[in-house]
Amino acid sequence: MNLIEPNELSERELEILRLVATGASNKEIAHQLYISANTVKVHLRNIFGKIGAASRTEAAMYAVQIGLVPSVPAQVPGEIESALNGQLARQTADAVSASSRRITTRAIWLIGIVVLLASITVGALALRGPGAPVSGSLAVPTGLPRWQVKNSLPTGRMGLATAVSENMIYAIGGEAKDGVTAALEGYDLVNRTWQTLTPKPQAVSDVRAAVIGGKIYVPGGRLPSGEPTDLLEIYDPRVDAWAQGARLPGARSAYALATFEGKIYVFGGWDGQRYQDTVYVYDPGQEEWEERTSMPTPRAFAAAANSGDRIYVIGGRDASGLLSVNEIYLPFDDDGAVIPWVQGTALPEGRSGLGVVAFADFLYVVGGNGPEQKALASLQYFPQQESWQAFDAPFPEPWSNFGLAAAGSQLYVLGGQSGRRVLDNFLVYQAIYTVSIPFLSGEQ
């Protein structure tokens, strides 16, 4: 275990490490700090990497050694105190010796499965052929239908906001054939039917939505007059009613939006005169906005998604045209002492009006307006490798300014535009297939 200086850990990492040393579970830590359990996992992975810990026990030992906690609390499992006395190694050795016979049979069986899967993968790669990969990667075809057409969106529209709450997907606002709309429609994922709900008080387009605490937040947008607005309207699905929140610091439409640790981040957009680089953060608990460090690149019609402790702001356009930039925002580093932006691997081509969603530690990019007015490949981004990989697109024509959301193991794409046509598409992409493999218990 590396005895690094405590100041090499961020304030949030030290806070989580202290809670780990008290015996708190990930769920308990998430509850105390008002963050998600997945965010806790990301922090723990970073903490373990920095201090060289292989377990919560070693992390707790480190917390005691640096004085983060005065001693091992009584509620902490006894193995931590044993480890501090040098006994954990002997206990581990005994356990390994006792279970080695059971593990041997299981390991041999699993190795066989791995070899078989590797052979299948190599064969698939060989059949794939050239031309498909992006940044040197290959997409392996599954032979299974990934894209499926569902019930059409009742009101075809582009520039709409989408949100998922409980078992409903919500389509909010946008521009329909007869102009900017206030329509709110919900798709019941259980009954597979659409419902017409209370319209948004102010009709807007070029807008996005965020879900926090069971409520749906829709900031800004483009009014029927064409001007952007600074309104924040909040929908409560439990009572099918709207309320107004604190106004944005500046009117914005065509912005990118992401959530992180219970707050809403609005990136850039159009203010009616120019492309913006602003970053606005909304705290629902305090009901107030705060301005943070600006983006390196002013732009509108970009998309953003949160993965781990980072927010990726991808693509868009500015006065010069389409952008391929992938700029990564580090919320924990935005303290005024350092620049909280780093550059990620750019898109293979510039695109605006795209959809981006984080799913299973990957980013999925769908559609967008490209440089040659042709259909763009759908892309996966792998943050660990900082690389892009193509996957199958829904259909062979340009498609942009739609709503994109993730629920369960699927991505949902609603509406949008193709050329000048407003679409009522409702498509589903099966992002993950679950394969059941029998597993030997190892009991003799």
Description:
The chain folds into two domains: 6-86, Arc Repressor Mutant, subunit A; 147-430, 6 Propeller (Neuraminidase), CATH 2.120.10.80. Strands 1-30-27-26 form a four-stranded antiparallel β-sheet, with no helix packed on it. A four-stranded antiparallel β-sheet has the order 2-3-6-7, with no helix packed on it. A four-stranded antiparallel β-sheet has the order 8-9-10-11, with no helix packed on it. It has helices at residues 11-21, 26-33, 37-51, 56-65, 78-84, 88-128, and strands at residues 147-149, 161-165, 168-172, 175-176, 179-180, 184-188, 193-196, 210-212, 215-219, 232-236, 241-244, 256-260, 263-270, 275-283, 288-292, 303-307, 310-314, 317-318, 321-322, 326-329, 341-343, 355-359, 362-366, 378-382, 387-391, 403-407, 410-414, 417-418, 421-422, 426-430. The protein has 444 residues and is of the alpha+beta class. A hairpin with a 2-residue loop joins strand 18 (317-318) and strand 19 (321-322). Helix 1 (11-21) crosses helix 4. The chain is built from six helices and 30 strands. The radius of gyration is 24 Å and the shape is globular.
